[in-house]
Automatic annotation (TrEMBL), chain A:
UniProt signal peptide: 1-22
Organism this protein belongs to: Astyanax mexicanus
Source organism superkingdom: Eukaryota
This protein's UniProt keywords: 2Fe-2S, Electron transport, Iron, Iron-sulfur, Metal-binding, Mitochondrion, Signal, Transport
Protein name: Adrenodoxin-like
Cofactor entry: [2Fe-2S] cluster
TrEMBL record, chain B:
GO terms under biological process: cholesterol metabolic process
Organism of origin: Astyanax mexicanus
Pfam family, one: Pyr_redox_2
Residues given in the record as NADP(+) binding sites: Q140, G141, N142, V143, R184, R185, E196, G299
Family membership noted in the UniProt record: Belongs to the ferredoxin--NADP reductase type 1 family.
Name under which the protein is recorded: NADPH:adrenodoxin oxidoreductase, mitochondrial
């Protein structure tokens, strides 16, 4: 199936790219591997597993089980979550397509650990549907205390399902 | 541009089992501005090519390069052969300044200059004369900033990029030391994005010189919320003051412009776009558009990507609701290929090899969709 093939490929490339990005920003605690299937078999002590709950653009809830230290972008790719256009630049801070919206308490928790780098802010500025609790998925790595968090995939642009009335953007 | 079509293809392949997509492109290589427009020192922006390649290698997607729609084959012929035609050919022309001297030697469009350092075949012989100290760039968008940055980047940085050899040689011999980026409005209205501005300000071995007068009153304005919304419509008003700037080259970077592709496709000359309603070309059944030719030539890759998704969804909706007549079988690429061969066109078709070299692909010009039987172009 084309989508899976696409996602698998992104995983391979995303991992390499994401490692470069995280190294560049000196973000602690992010562990990346060059091997495929980073979330499916290596060093799996129970306390390293966390659950992340995504809400996609249709409001559908998707719960994934993953390990700590992986970025949210890599989780999306690794788990073949079908979010259109997600992660176009493969985690190199050159786009805003991995934009995710966090719960306020989680957002603040992340902020307490590390300030958001200018490079991430610059790209977030271009994201659609930007909120006060938005972050780029490629820059946020899951830790144990984020277990169970809910992240929302924001709307892209105008919903093409709307009829062409006054309210829809053209 | 290829990326627009390929995002459309992505949507289609997921939604329908029997949709075949043929992509027609004027150049022999694909990907459009992602290949020829992104600055060589921004390779990460080009990562999206991996996504495109994957999509292009889908079993129901076929690529046809070296086909100039409007010349080698008409849109009318394409509409006859396919259930739907999606035009995403971008904006190949430049907006003109409309001022005296625009055609003088030493005045270039940013598009040509970028094409020159990025290896676009038609710009290979541009030969810009960099034997001058000052270059003036008109416009303050990301393209203007890219040009300025390439002109002033330390050579050690440029050598690590995939900038063309002839451009690297020219820049090595360049005497350009000062680049003026000139715009009509103020700092709050520049079209460039923060990342590129920051990069320019921090460029090694250069200093950024900004006129303090330009920033008068800015800090007060910034204290309010919704600054961007308030200020983007601010219009430039002539002050009557004139200034002569001595320079050896002028690069005009005031925007791209789409051109009409075919007499049977409506075109709105004022905005230089195809008139459409959410991607459906007005007054023409079976014709759609996406990307710059639909909305105008602005925005980053993500903008165009989402726009293409929108067009694709609209098309799928029309297919589902019967707005698009799918009852008749259409021959698709079979008919077009035959026409092209009759006319002696040497178009290239991709082969679905496992390790297909994406540099063999062609830049994208149009996308076409068909519900016909699968046609392999090997």
């Amino acid at each position: 199936m084309a989508v899976s093939a696409l996602s698998s490929r992104l995983l391979l490339l995303g991992l390499n790219a994401a490692r470069v990005t995280c190294a560049h920003l000196g973000r602690p605690g992010c562990v990346f591997s060059n091997a495929r299937g980073v979330s499916s078999g290596r060093a799996l002590r129970t306390e390293e597993r966390v659950t992340v709950r995504f809400i996609d653009r249709d409001g559908k809830r998707i719960s994934v089980n993953t390990i700590t230290g992986v970025s949210l972008l890599n989780i999306v790719v690794d788990q073949n979550l079908d979010f259109e256009g997600f992660g176009a630049c493969e985690g190199t801070l050159a786009c805003s397509t991995c934009h995710l919206i966090f719960e306020e308490k989680i957002y603040n928790k992340l902020l307490n650990e590390t300030t958001v780098a200018d490079e991430e802010m610059d790209m977030l500025d271009l994201a659609y549907g930007l909120t006060d609790t938005s972050r780029l998925g490629c820059q946020v790595c899951v830790t144990k205390d984020l277990d169970g968090m809910v992240v929302r995939v924001p709307e892209a642009v105008s919903d093409a399902r709307k009829t062409s009335d006054k309210d829809s953007a053209s | 541009m290829l990326e627009q079509s390929l995002y459309c293809v992505c949507i289609f392949s997921q939604a329908q089992d029997d949709v075949i997509v043929d992509v027609y492109e004027r150049l022999p290589v694909p990907f459009g501005l992602v290949r020829f427009g992104v600055a060589p020192d921004h390779p990460e922006v080009k990562n999206v090519i991996n996504t495109f390649t994957q999509t292009a290698q889908h079993e129901r997607c076929f690529f046809h390069g070296n086909v100039n729609v409007g010349v080698d084959v008409t849109v009318k012929e394409l509409k006859k052969a396919y259930h739907a035609v999606v035009l995403s050919y971008g904006a190949e022309a430049n907006r003109c300044m409309g001022v005296p001297g625009e055609d003088l030697a030493g005045v270039f469009s940013a598009r040509d200059f970028v094409g020159w350092y990025n290896g676009l075949p038609s710009n290979q012989k541009l030969n810009p004369d960099l034997n001058c100290e000052t270059v003036v760039i008109l416009g303050q968008g990301n393209v203007a900033l890219d040009v300025a940055r390439i002109l002033l980047s330390p050579l050690d940085m440029l050598k690590k990029t995939d900038i063309t050899q002839h451009a690297l040689e020219a820049l090595t011999a360049s005497r350009v030391r000062r680049v003026l980026i000139v715009g009509r409005r103020g700092p709050l209205q520049i079209a460039g994005t923060i990342k590129e501005v920051r990069e320019m300000i921090n460029l090694p071995d250069t200093t950024a010189d900004m006129l303090p007068a330009d920033f008068k009153g800015i800090s007060e304005t910034l204290k309010g919320r919704n600054v961007a919304v308030q200020n983007q419509d601010a219009k430039a008003v002539p002050t009557g003051q004139m200034e002569d700037l001595e320079c050896g080259m002028v690069i005009s970077s005031i925007g791209y412009k789409s051109l009409p592709i075919d007499p049977c496709v409506p075109f709105e000359h004022r905005g230089a776009i195809i008139p459409n309603d959410m991607g459906r070309v007005l007054d023409t059944a079976g014709l759609y558009c996406s990307g710059w030719v639909k909305r105008g030539p602005t925005g980053v890759i993500a903008t165009t990507m989402n726009d293409s998704f929108d067009t694709a969804r609209v098309l799928l909706k029309d297919m589902k609701e019967g707005t698009l007549d799918l009852s008749v079988n259409k021959p698709g690429a079979q008919e077009i290929t035959a026409l092209l061969q009759e006319r002696g066109n040497t178009h290239r078709n991709t082969q679905k090899k496992k390790n297909a070299d994406c540099t063999l692909f062609s830049r994208k010009k149009n996308t076409l969709l068909t519900n016909s039987q699968k046609f392999k172009t090997f």
